[in-house]
């Protein structure tokens, strides 16, 4: 599928310049958004022992946090459209910092669910959606690369936070570690400051509507209100479900999200159960993040190539199939060497998927519809995000073995990848089949428009005097000439 068209007139993406600084800011905010729920798993064993929680109960922390991050998508998108990305990311950073600081004083699981899960997840939602939206405004041709670099923030921060959290845990305990982590997350406010709004130079002809808008402040204010109401309604636009490509993408991404995070949440605990030392178990997440760090921008470069860009949906399917297969093979090996190998391949698959997951949606919907589409997608994906890790934790509680969660997650993700591959073949076949009919409809509309225009010209030629009488008052109004006052009972000409 070809890249989505650029926005019209003055809104054409810049593909560079300050956009690279925006990518840096998005790298930081997205890094915290995706790495924090994973890196918190370092604290879970101590929290579980301290508060007497089960495996499924402790998994709800990351689940609620990720679900809140995804569920807040429509609200975040609406706020970004109204206020811009910069203030929203700054507000999200403040919420994340406050959530971690308050969670450090918790004495119950419900309190941690509220502070870390709900408040922290909402803050991460503001960071994530605002960062993705502003990248789509700054880039078009280089957008896969920009998305890959921004999404690489997740593995970079995971690679750093995993050993740092383990070090803080041993010195300060889980409460002190959360307090320090809250301070670190305030750096999202710095990232938000880099997200300068797009100001593109305009041609004179393109800027005429803006000049008219300034000359009529009352009308512009009314139109602005109407536009905001229209945008607010569009963030839960159910007409997206009429788009076959969108529905296929949504089903596949739901299946991936359900099984994506449980292996990360329980990887350290699984390694410790296999007899691996705690620091070495924590380094498995670091290894995964280190590999993921390089895979995401590399995937962005590959996806930007002229051979892969038109087939990016199939590339996404391959990434999901690869990741699901890696999870299915994990329980077959128990030594630390094979766990390191698993972490490497997991990083490759996870990096490919998350470098493409939003780029594929942009490719399907285009820049204009993307904020609405991503809001709808994230609020739907919050349900599998919420249920995935606790379901995996429940399997651990029932069978007393971690291998069943890897089998479950791997089979679900593999099925989703195969579904996307087959259904995208069907979708492209149907698009080719429907293309002649769509071309005929467009041709018929053009013919009807041309016929209407020709009839109007003929009518003008037949009645030139009436046309002059009609156009003369309009010309006088445009030049600021006032009409002579008419009596109240006089008829107003049409």
Automatic annotation (TrEMBL):
Xref: InterPro entries: MCT (IPR004743), MFS (IPR011701), MFS_dom (IPR020846), MFS_trans_sf (IPR036259), Proton-linked_MCT (IPR050327)
Reactions this protein catalyses: 4-methyl-2-oxopentanoate(out) + H(+)(out) = 4-methyl-2-oxopentanoate(in) + H(+)(in); 3-methyl-2-oxobutanoate(out) + H(+)(out) = 3-methyl-2-oxobutanoate(in) + H(+)(in)
One example GO MF annotation: symporter activity
Name recorded for this polypeptide: Major facilitator superfamily (MFS) profile domain-containing protein
Species: Eleginops maclovinus (Patagonian blennie)
Gene Ontology CC entries for this record: basolateral plasma membrane
Residues covered by region (Disordered): 443-494
Family: Belongs to the major facilitator superfamily. Monocarboxylate porter (TC 2.A.1.13) family.
Keyword Mitochondrion part of the UniProt annotation: no
Biased composition (Basic and acidic residues): 458-477
Cellular location(s): Basolateral cell membrane
PANTHER family: MAJOR FACILITATOR SUPERFAMILY (MFS) PROFILE DOMAIN-CONTAINING PROTEIN (PTHR11360:SF92), MONOCARBOXYLATE TRANSPORTER (PTHR11360)
Predominant cellular place of this UniProt entry's protein: membrane
Membrane-spanning parts: 58-80, 87-105, 111-132, 144-164, 176-195, 246-270, 282-302, 314-333, 339-361, 373-392, 404-426
Membrane topology, record value: Multi-pass membrane protein
Domain Major facilitator superfamily (MFS) profile: 21-428
């Amino acid at each position: 599928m070809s890249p989505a068209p650029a926005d019209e007139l003055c809104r054409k993406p810049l593909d560079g310049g300050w956009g690279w600084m925006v990518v840096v800011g998005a790298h930081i905010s997205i890094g915290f958004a995706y790495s924090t729920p994973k890196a918190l798993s370092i604290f879970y064993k101590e929290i579980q022992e301290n508060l007497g929680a089960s495996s499924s109960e402790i998994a709800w922390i990351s689940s609620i946090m990720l679900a809140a991050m995804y569920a807040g998508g429509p609200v975040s998108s609406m706020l970004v459209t109204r206020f811009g990305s910069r203030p929203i990311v700054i507000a999200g950073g403040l919420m994340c910092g406050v959530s971690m600081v308050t969670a450090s004083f918790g004495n119950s699981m419900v309190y941690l669910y509220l502070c870390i899960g709900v408040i922290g997840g909402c803050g991460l939602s503001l960071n994530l959606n605002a960062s993705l939206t502003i990248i789509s405004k700054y880039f078009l041709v280089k957008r896969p690369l920009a998305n890959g670099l921004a999404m690489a923030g997740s593995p970079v921060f995971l690679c750093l936070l995993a050993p740092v959290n383990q070090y803080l845990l041993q010195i300060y305990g889980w409460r002190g570690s959360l307090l320090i982590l809250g301070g670190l997350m305030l750096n999202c406010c710095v990232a938000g400051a880099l997200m300068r709004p797009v100001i593109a130079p305009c041609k004179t002809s393109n800027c005429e509507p803006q000049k008219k808008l300034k000359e009529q402040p009352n009308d512009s204010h009314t139109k602005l209100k109407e536009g905001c109401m229209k945008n607010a309604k569009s963030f839960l636009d159910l007409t997206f479900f009429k788009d076959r490509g969108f529905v296929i993408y949504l089903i596949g991404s739901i299946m991936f999200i359900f099984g994506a995070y449980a292996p990360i949440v329980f990887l350290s605990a699984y390694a410790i159960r296999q007899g691996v030392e705690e620091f070495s178990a924590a380094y498995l997440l670091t290894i995964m993040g280190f590999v993921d760090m390089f895979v995401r921008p590399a995937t962005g470069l590959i996806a930007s190539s002229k051979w892969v860009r038109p087939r990016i949906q199939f590339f996404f399917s391959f990434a999901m199939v690869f990741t699901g297969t890696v999870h299915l093979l994990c329980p077959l090996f128990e030594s630390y060497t094979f766990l390191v190998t698993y972490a490497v391949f997991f990083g490759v698959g996870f990096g490919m998927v998350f470098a493409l997951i939003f780029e594929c949606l942009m490719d399907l919907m285009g820049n204009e519809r993307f904020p609405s589409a991503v809001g709808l997608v994230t609020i739907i994906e919050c349900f599998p995000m919420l249920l995935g890790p606790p379901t995996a934790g429940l399997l651990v509680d029932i069978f007393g073995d971690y291998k069943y969660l890897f089998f479950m997650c791997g089979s679900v993700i593999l099925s989703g990848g195969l579904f996307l591959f087959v259904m995208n073949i069907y979708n492209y076949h149907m698009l080719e089949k429907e293309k002649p009919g769509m071309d005929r409809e467009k041709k018929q509309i053009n013919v009807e428009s041309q016929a209407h225009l020709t009839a109007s010209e003929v009518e003008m030629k037949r009645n030139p005097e009436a046309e002059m009488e009609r156009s003369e008052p309009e010309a006088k109004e445009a030049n600021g000439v006032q009409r002579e006052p008419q009596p109240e009972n006089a008829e107003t000409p049409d």
